[in-house]
Design brief:
- This protein has about 190 residues and is mainly alpha-helical.
- About 75% of the residues lie in helices and about 5% in strands.
- The chain has one domain: CDP-alcohol phosphotransferase transmembrane (TM) domain (Four Helix Bundle (Hemerythrin (Met), subunit A)).
- Strands 1-2 form a two-stranded antiparallel sheet.
- β1 and β2 form a beta hairpin.
- The longest helix has 30 residues.
- One of its GO terms (molecular function) is CDP-diacylglycerol-glycerol-3-phosphate 3-phosphatidyltransferase activity.
Length: about 190
């Protein structure tokens, strides 16, 4: 297994720790940040999320630079992103950091794309993420990081940057899903 794939797997292995940090009621205190408070456990989860999300860029960079792109990587990388983002968004509903309807749309898009990839895999075709999918992932990662930080540093000026980014991520999630299906509809049309 090459280094990019190991980095992708490390992202998957960080997800349970991330979930524990957000779902177990640790009493580590909290900080006042402008109009909001930031629990220390959420800060720790944000740092872990940022580290995990950064491996997405690093593994892709290494794979392309050293010609280490593999079918396993094409499969694992988007899966790791989906697992990390889905875990965060589902926990956001419980923590009242994101509306359920937004989370449902984002996760539904991920299931739909995964279904298309499974059909393609059955036909021997590997569908890698496109440019729109990368924009979608980037906006989701930024939105999640800022929401985990309870809108820091924007909480000092009262601007809901995390919420705005969540809706921008929703827009790119829907748009990239449509784009992905349009560009790859031949897989559904031509499947046996």
């Amino acid at each position: 297994m090459n280094l990019p794939n190991k980095l992708t797997l490390s992202r998957i292995f960080l997800i349970p720790i991330f979930i524990i940090l957000l779902s177990v009621p640790f009493e580590w205190g909290e900080w006042n940040i402008g109009e909001n408070t930031l629990p220390v456990s959420h800060f720790a989860a944000a740092l872990l999320f940022i580290v995990a999300a950064s491996t997405d860029w690093i593994d892709g960079y290494i794979a392309r630079k050293h010609n280490l792109v593999t079918n396993l990587g094409k499969f694992l990388d988007p899966l790791a992103d989906k697992l990390l983002v889905s875990a965060a968004l589902i926990l956001f509903v419980e923590l009242e950091l994101a509306p359920a309807w937004v989370v449902i749309i984002i996760i539904s898009r991920e299931f739909a794309i995964t279904g298309l990839r499974l059909v393609a895999a059955g036909e021997g075709i590997v569908l890698a993420a496109g440019k729109m999918g990368k924009i979608k992932t980037a906006t989701q990662m930024v939105a999640i990081a800022v929401l985990l930080l309870h809108n820091f540093p924007f909480s000092y000026i009262g601007f809901p940057f995390g919420t705005v980014m969540l809706y921008i991520a929703l827009f790119f999630t829907v748009l990239s899903g449509i784009d992905y299906f349009v560009k790859n509809w031949h897989v559904m049309r031509d499947s046996k």
